[in-house]
Specification:
transmembrane helix; Putative glutamine transport system permease protein GlnP; transmembrane transporter activity; amino-acid transport; cell membrane; MetI-like fold; 230 residues; 8 helices; 0% strand; mainly alpha
Length: 230
Amino acid sequence: MTIDTLMTYLTPLLQGAWWTVALFAASSLLSVALGIVVCLCRISSRPALRSAAKVYIDVIRGTPLLVQLFFIYYGLPELGLVMPGFAAGVLGLVLNFGAYLAELFRGGIQSVDNGQFEASRALGMTAAQRMRVIVMPQALRTIFPALGNYALVLVKDTSLVAVLSVYELMRAGQMLAGATFQALLVYSLVGAIYFVLCSVLSFFFRRAEKTLTIPGYWDGTAEHNPVAKI
């Protein structure tokens, strides 16, 4: 195969890859926000909030992502709620990963020693200050490796949005394979692009994890320690 032919195949796939990156960026940011909100509801002192968060998490984790995408894109229009494929894909990914991240955040928060909470109360800190300055930084260090794994899963699960006819990497591969009848080559290139995207993301998460584990970063001895700024 010549370079010109290869570029002819890569051009539509790279265009689809940009939409995959857009799907990932939008879904990851909104998933983290939703996960934090649901996590705070899950550990709230109000029974109604705890129950609602638990039901949401159980329903989402108990059903496949593909079924959730079909429900949003094909089922909700019967109730009068119609949305574009890209928006439906983002919504499905956010609802799905938000539930998993909520439990991840809850585990990280509950891993913080109770003495930290008592010390922050003794200092007169509000609940919001305790969560922002004391609890979340320590919880983040605990859950960060798992958070990176979820990010990699999210990149690959964006491929499921192809069933909604959203033009992203997998959909671009399907269209190209159907037009050229070169399924082996096309899907090999699709897999290679996913591998590159995941490798780049893994690199950044490894670098960030090393930063979070710098001696003195969280215990007050480093200049950039967030606790020292109180």
